[in-house]
Amino acid sequence: MQKKYLMTPGPTPVPSEVLLAQARPMIHHRTPDFNNVVDECVSGLKYVFQTTESDVIIFASSGTGAMESSIANCFCAGDKVIVCTNGKFGQRMTQICTVYGLDIIELSYGWQTCVSPQDVALALEENPDARGVIVTQSETSSGVLNDCEAIGKIVRDYPDCVLIVDSITGIGAVDCKTDEWGLDVVMTGSQKGLMLPPGLAACTVSPKAWKAYERSTLPKFYFDWKKYKKNLENHTTPFTPAVSLMIGLAESLKLMREEGIDNIIARHSRLASATRAGCEALGLEIFAPVEGRGSAVTPVWVPEGIDGKKLVSLLKNKYGVTIAGGQDEYTGRIIRIGHLGYFGDFDIITVIAALEMALSELGYTFERGVGIKAVETVLMEG
Ligand SMILES: Cc1ncc(COP(=O)(O)O)c(C=O)c1O
Fold first, then answer.
1. Which positions of the chain have pLDDT values less than 50?
2. Which ranges in the chain belong to alpha helices (H)?
3. Would you tell me which of 19, 30, 44, 231 could form a disulfide with 238, CB atoms 3.0–4.6 Å apart?
4. Confidence at residue 273, expressed as pLDDT on a 0 to 100 scale
């Protein structure tokens, strides 16, 4: 037997309380029992999205479903949108907007660069008719954190322009104040900070986003927000929901409320610092820039002379630790250590210890133990 450790930025480990909740016998979704589950999910999600002003909608889909819904529900074909991209998931938003025939102004950055709020301000000054600004808060492909608070302050001054935020690996890992920052649509997926298996997505819809919905003419059926709103008001869902996942979600949201959103964010920040310190002590360089490092995933350059793909497979096959590799042009060149959701101090010790062993086996020279020592120092002394 080999004990397995899942340390990718999604799917993430699922706490036993949540696994057990999902294993309960099936219930019918048009019953008072399930109505209670829906209510718990909606109020818990509002808590983690930090909103009282927006509605929350839950889909039986992966995160990309919520991304697509944000476009289909807010715009008309030909609408001008400003899409900020600095990684794979920002690029996915551009792809979705292209499919829906939007007029895209792309603010495109390298994967190691944060989206500049000043560039967004300038793009809006030059294009006051833009109907949307789209940004990825926590860019999972690069570990870069974009400043949605600053972008929110800018977009707020444009009453006909909605700010759409992909926070799929942000929610439950980094601060995301939906109301306070003026974020109109914020989305997440179940297999991330919510500590569930894949299969659910959720998004918030602000009053400004409902205004956009009312004028939007893009085709939508399964992802039509109004259908969900009407049904959620009656404590149910328009289509057959992912019953077991929603029972699990109610449980994970209970755990999140018990810990408290500020404590959750602080725990992630501490674990991310410890991971970075461990890697840096081994002489590895962090991929994301100092000014924009998120807490969901630590991206690290693979050292010169080491095969990144081999490193990832050695960690998985020999040590039972699954981390993610790089994507697109960074395949084999960076590794990504996920610590999003159900993670604690000793998970970080484990991954850095495994990294030391695997790197050593691949011929990388360093003083064994320095990585773990650095992790312990951050965990013990802050
Ligand atoms: C930032 C971000 N956006 C979008 C997605 C897509 O979500 P899904 O794979 O659940 O459709 C992911 C998934 O990793 C992500 O990390």
1. none
2. 16-22, 32-49, 63-74, 88-99, 117-126, 148-155, 207-215, 225-233, 243-259, 261-281, 308-317, 345-361, 370-381
3. 231
4. 98
Q: Are residues 266 and 124 located together in one domain of the fold?
A: no
What does the pLDDT read at residue 199?
98
Query: In whole angstroms, what is the distance from residue 99 CA to residue 89 CA?
Result: 15
Pocket lining: 189 vs ligand 1, CB cutoff 6 Å = yes
Q: What is the dihedral sign for C-alpha 225, 226, 228, 232?
A: positive
CA of 168 to the centre of ligand 1 (A): 6
Model-wide pTM > 0.85: yes
Do 320 and 307 sit in the same domain of this protein?
Answer: yes
Which residue type occupies 272?
A
Measure 59 CA to ligand 1 centroid, in angstroms: 14
- 53 and 192 both lie in a single domain: yes
CATH number, domain of 201, equals 3.40.640.10
Nearest alpha-carbon partner for 287 in 246, 333, 341: 333
Residue of 84, 94, 169 to mutate, ligand 1, most atoms within 8 A of C-beta = 169
pLDDT tens-digit series, residues 327-370? 999 999 999 999 999 999 999 999 999 999 999 999 999 999 99
